[in-house]
Amino acid sequence: MKQFKAIYRILKALARAMGDEVAPLAQIAPEAVGLTEMEWEQILILLQKSGYIEGVQWTQTMSDYSPRLVHPIAPRITLKGLEYVEDNSMMKKAADMMKGVVEAVK
Questions:
Q1: What is the CATH number of the domain that holds 33?
Q2: 75: which residues sit within 8 A by CB, 6+ positions away?
Q3: Three-state SS for 54?
Q4: What is the tally of structural domains in the chain?
Q5: Phi then psi for 58, rounded to 5 degrees?
Q6: Contact criterion met (CB below 8 Å) for 33 and 6
Q7: Residue 25, SS3?
Q8: What SS3 class is residue 22?
Q9: pTM metric for this prediction
Q10: CA 104 to CA 47: how far, in whole Å?
Q11: Which residues make Cβ contacts (< 8 Å) with residue 10, sequence separation at least 6?
Q12: 53 has which bridge partners?
């Protein structure tokens, strides 16, 4: 579950930074989104492979268990990533609204 929260936080930060000259690396850093360095790298790679972001590269040697990011990185959100943020924002609002209705009925 923490990975999905981190994904949302990363994509939301990248969406807010659209049009900026530099990526918001401090806002999407592993410690900022509650991940270890290895988890964070894997999430960014998955996001790029899935088409949610662009601007990261990775490498994997025979001795690496999993791919590793090639630094420096300059992640940018894609249209698919923007759609993810928008859909999940609306889902959260709907869930919060339903929660309020359930509490009001009690």
A1: 1.10.10.10
A2: 10, 14, 23, 28, 44, 47, 48, 53, 54, 55, 56
A3: strand
A4: 1
A5: -140, 165
A6: yes
A7: helix
A8: coil
A9: 0.82
A10: 39
A11: 28, 33, 43, 44, 47, 53, 75
A12: 77
| Containing structural domain, residue 6 | 2-105
Nearest to 59 by CA among 67, 49, 51, 71: 67
Q: What is the pLDDT of residues 52-78, one digit of tens each?
A: 999 999 999 888 888 999 999 999 999
- β-strand partners of 68: 59
- C-beta neighbour count of 101 within 10 angstroms: 9
**Amino acid (1-letter code) at residue 13:** A
pLDDT at 96 over 90: no
Which residue has tokens 């300059």? Answer: 74
| Residue 101: pLDDT over 60 | no
Q: Tokens 């609002």 identify what position?
A: 93
Structure tokens at 61: 């040697």
Distance of CA 20 to the CA centre of its chain: 17
Q: Which residues contact 24 (CB under 8 A, 6 or more apart)?
A: 13, 14, 16, 17
Which DSSP helix (H) or strand (E) runs through 85? helix 79-105
Q: Quick one: how many helices (H) and strands (E) in the chain?
A: 5, 4
